[in-house]
Amino acid sequence: MGFYFFPRGGSAQVVRYLCRALERRGCHPLLFTGSLGSTTATTNAARFFADIACQPLDYTEALSDWRAGGDPMAATVPMHASYEDKPDVADRSFFQLDDDAFERQVLCWTDHFADAHTAAPDAVHLHHLTPMHAAARALWPDVPLITHLHGTELKMLAGASVSAASEQPGPWMEHWVARMRRWAADSDHIVVVSDHDAQLARRLLPLDAVPVTVAANGVDTDTFGPRHPGRAERMDQWSHLLVADPHGWRPGGLEGSVRYQPGDLRSFLDTEGRPVPVVLYSGRFLRFKRLQRLIEAHQAMRRSTAARSVLAIAGGFPGEWEDEHPYDTVRRIGAEDVFFLGWREHDELARILNCSDLFAAPAVDEPFGLTYLEAMASGVPPLATTTGGPCSFINTEPGRPTGWLVAPDDAVALAAALTEAVSSPADRLERGRRAARYVRTHHSWAQTADAVAALYRRS
Questions:
Q1: Domain count, the chain
Q2: N or C: which end of the chain has fewer CB within 10 A?
Q3: Residues 270, 391: contact at Cβ < 8 Å?
Q4: Contact 394/421 with Cβ under 8 angstroms?
Q5: What is the pTM of this model?
Q6: Share of the chain above pLDDT 90, in %
Q7: Model confidence over 61-85: pLDDT tens digits?
Q8: Is residue 223 in some structural domain?
């Protein structure tokens, strides 16, 4: 199994849970993956995939070269590239990498595969479309190859034609688009995470001769479950996350550069000392997530109604963001009661959800949306848009809603849905109960692993 990036974001969680579930089904994945930092870093593969047979490729030297003013793509182990074009980061967009940089990527992964795996594997399962494909095919041209798309590569491909027509694209865009389409067409099977992505993949990639399987991501229901801590426990949790152990960061600042004082926590209580609803966002600070729009809608709700709530923002990988940084959005509009939690471990996210009342992420064309499902499993109803993967699992049964869905990029509808959710505790609770039941019935990792293991057996 191959995962080109160092551990961060939803697809890394998918790889970790899928490997564990496959092992319980008699499949024995050997994971080749990127890694970053020391063994104490959350981005270190040996730490993140601690219970999985793992062969990390360390990007730390490439990152150090970049910080010293060098080219991270020319390091002995070149930095991985990115599907997003973000400023001032080491992992430049694929579309910015020339043919020599591509060849260095392929050679590095070919050597890494060969050094650690002398015999041909029974199958190759690669996550995302990356130079790993060229390396695996060079070594094992006759071994069945399964490509697992997580949506980010599809977003980049979908945006490629728009970029070519409306703005200056990356100079090597056409080369990379051709490669990714070739890798997909050369796969023996494609796995996607939603019906939405299946349709998008068939439109963007030449898949006429390649079978496509939808295998929705699962949820760790042992970690994410409905728990309802009391007021004191909730306040202790927010005090720890915001005052004692702050991880929020501002543009140009380090993790922890956004800090809070004990008095700031008064925002979490009403005038009679009762907890006010907490609206939680969790995810990276990417353009399609529309976090800035959420901040604006939350503030519009506060100004136009008597509804009170706190907006807690978890995530945002330190040092990277697209468009306006959400911290700058808060300052620009004077948004009140918005708190930045920073990037958090998965078990911390479970505790954060248990202290929250609504999960809100108005992303447009979210490829799947594992975090929405984790919120639902925790009994926290989600607020999403009528686009992308969340449509396949939110409000699927008429008359029995599990959350709220609004039109994409509709600021008025988003503020109205926030107002309704914040003002309706009984409705929130009932939708959350239905959501938790739905996830346990339809989104177990066992089901996902069974589908993938069946592909292995047929390959």
A1: 2
A2: C
A3: no
A4: no
A5: 0.82
A6: 83
A7: 999 999 999 999 999 999 999 998 8
A8: no
